[in-house]
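Working notes for the structural subgroup meeting. M.R. asked for a predicted model of this chain before we commit to crystallization trials. I am recording the input and output together here so anyone reviewing the notebook later can reproduce the run.

Input as submitted:
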Amino acid sequence: MEKNKVTYLDPKYDLTFKRVFAEHKNLCISLINSMLMFEGKNRVVDIEYQTNELVPELPILKDSIVDVRCKDKSGREFIVEMQMNWTESFKARVLLNATKAYVMQLDKAKSIELLKPVYSINLVNEIFEKSKEMEDEYYHPYKIVHSNHSKKQIKGLEFVFIELPKFKPTNRAERKLHELWLRFLTEINEDTKEVPKELLENEEIREAIEYMKEAAFSKDEKLTYDQNKIDVLTARGMLSSAKQEGKAEGLAEGKEKVIKIAKNLKNSGMPLEQISEMTDLTTEEIENL
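Returned structure, recorded in token form:
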């Protein structure tokens, strides 16, 4: 019986997340429609992956490579990010990537009125909204609206942030696929002994689970996956410790701790962009350490 045991990898890490959503259009379309809750005419029916990176001209802002970027037949653009460690600077990068994608349309559009909306979907594996009034809210949609009249909207940019640790299934029929995808991201991992039947009953989720079987990855890919996990867990532990020490010692000392961590991670060979995401330092600051 042990010989037939199936082991799975966690879909939230870079390699596995891209394996599912950056290589299989049908699954990416399903995720987009379910996370944005698109229905009827708004639904995405086909996409093209965008391979050109959103790299700004300013070196200080060059850490802007995204996980998945695509557009549908109508020209709408979608940016999908999986963030393992939350930092406040991540919000700034999300805004940067979305506005960059919006402005880059001017290269092909004949007039500014023809620019299509950009939607940014951000899946976060940490809790970042900790206020009492939002302790049970995992889904955070943002639009550009009038301060006094929320129905008045400037269209063009929309953002969704999802706190995965807060997600709890409610089995609401009208949000079934939305919840199934979030269950896939939060319930499938190395500890999965048996895949819940509700996930296997859906064709798209079942397909995604197949791609998460450890046997589907080469030896080199598995090594990359393991190293990514180590990097994420190491940085999270070091940052958590630095934050606690920073609270006790003051902001200046806390900043020094973060710089020390960034320097150690740089010396270990971790990519500068990844260090930047974990420490809130820019890649230029890290290069100069």
